[in-house]
Amino acid sequence: MGIKDIPISSRPRERAISEGVSALSLEELLAILIQKGSKGLSAREVALEILKRHPTLNSLSNLSMEQLLKVKGIGPAKALEILSSLELGKRLYLQVEESKKISLKSAEDIYYYTKYLFYGKKQEYFYCLYLNPRCEVIERKLLFMGTINRSVVHPREIFKYAYLSSASSIVCVHNHPSGSIIPSKEDICLTKALVEIGTLNKIPVVDHVIIGDETYYSFYEDGKILNI
Fold it and tell me: Is 182 exposed, middle or buried (0-12, 13-18, 19+ CB in 10 A)?
């Protein structure tokens, strides 16, 4: 069905005006961003083609320029508009999350709090979350990027921010761009070293979570960190 075949009151723009954008489906939101289709295709049909290829919010948030340009009706300018809108949404979400007092009481809490930080990342990002005695996040720091191992992740940087923020404990989080959540030998060695240093400094590393594709691995849940 083309846009001209839809009653005016049911078209995305008209519905957005009368009901608000929160009432729109993903298809309708994308159609508004696309604005105009191409020869023989309406904006809504182009939106449907994008969703056919990338049906989940996770896959949409990871869209690349190359992927969008493979969709008939999407050129470089339109692809940039869509990608910019997605990036704006990510940043707004993270700003709202950072303004809250987030309490992390399980590895699952850590996963849902941090997973958006890693969407679309093609290399490893290593974050530390610094917690107060109530397990609330008082500081979040991106400390390293690239291949994560003991030679690049310096304990002095990790514990420096712990002292500066008066943290009671630390959670380490990093991603595996491959999607696998199996800890590497470097992950295991690094975690062991950080736990030992944390114990000596009375600022325990209470978990190290690896983020993969829609799942996670927790050293604590796997019994590899016992000093909580």
Answer: exposed
Tens of pLDDT, residues 94-132: 666 665 678 899 999 999 999 988 887 888 999 999 999
Whether the predicted model's global pTM rises above the 0.85 cut: no
Q: Phi-psi region for residue 215, left (φ > 0), alpha (ψ -120 to 50) or beta?
A: beta
- Between CA 215 and CA 62 the distance in angstroms is 16
- Same domain assignment for residues 49 and 143: no
- 226 within domain boundaries: no
Residue with tokens 């723009």: 13
For residues 58 and 13, membership in a common domain is answered with yes
Beta carbons within 8 Å of 159's beta carbon, 6+ residues apart: 170, 197, 198, 201, 203
For residues 93 and 178, membership in a common domain is answered with no
SS (H, E, C) 115-167: HHHHCCCCCCEEEEEEECCCCEEEEEEEEEECCCCCCCCCHHHHHHHHHHCCC
Domain boundary among 97, 119, 151: 97
Amino acid code (one letter) for 191: T
Range of the domain at 114: 102-218
From CA 155, how far away is CA 149, in angstroms rounded?
11
Are 40 and 79 in the same domain? Answer: yes
Q: For 83-98, what is each residue's pLDDT tens digit?
A: 998 888 877 776 666 6
Looking at the fold, whether 68 and 113 belong to one and the same domain comes out as: no
